[in-house]
Amino acid sequence: MNTRTVHTVHPSPLGDLLLTGTVSAAGLALTSLTLPGQRGAPAVRAEDRDDAPFAVAHRQLEVYFSGRPTRFDLSLAPVGTPFQQAVWQALDDIPHGTTTTYGVLAARLGVPRAELRAVGRALGANPLLLVRPCHRVIGADGSMRGYAGGVARKVWLLTHEGALQPTLV
């Protein structure tokens, strides 16, 4: 099967999002969505930019950033270990506007408490920010733990979704 790797950029309140994917006869499979300055973001070549295959992803991101609850319905093809894939898939069950804790997520996956850090590492390796909402996982004490896009962006996303109340300064 002939596939090609492509990318696009989507403007957002968080900066330009980089979306990458593979295109085949079956269509686009999204492989990553990264925020500006995010560690581990894929390197792309200018000549591989092709906005057209990402039309559905662009529309769904526009709906999300307009403030409407969004459940992304895209073909996904992130690269990761079977354990990472299981953790990332579990994120799909965390509804818009809610949060869960690392411990609750680990328990749902059957991961022993002693291996809780493995869940955190898998979340840190999530290549599909926003689409696979790792920003909705917080500390048991309500604290904002690490986020590949930065903790300030995690707070922004949770406030945008209504899971946190805006702070007044």
Automatic annotation (TrEMBL):
Its EC number is 2.1.1.63. SUPFAM superfamilies: Methylated DNA-protein cysteine methyltransferase domain (SSF53155), Methylated DNA-protein cysteine methyltransferase, C-terminal domain (SSF46767). Keywords: DNA damage, DNA repair, Methyltransferase, Transferase. It catalyses: a 6-O-methyl-2'-deoxyguanosine in DNA + L-cysteinyl-[protein] = S-methyl-L-cysteinyl-[protein] + a 2'-deoxyguanosine in DNA; a 4-O-methyl-thymidine in DNA + L-cysteinyl-[protein] = a thymidine in DNA + S-methyl-L-cysteinyl-[protein]. It comes from Streptomyces broussonetiae. Residues 7-77 form the Methylguanine DNA methyltransferase ribonuclease-like domain. This is methylated-DNA--[protein]-cysteine S-methyltransferase. Pfam families: DNA_binding_1, Methyltransf_1N.
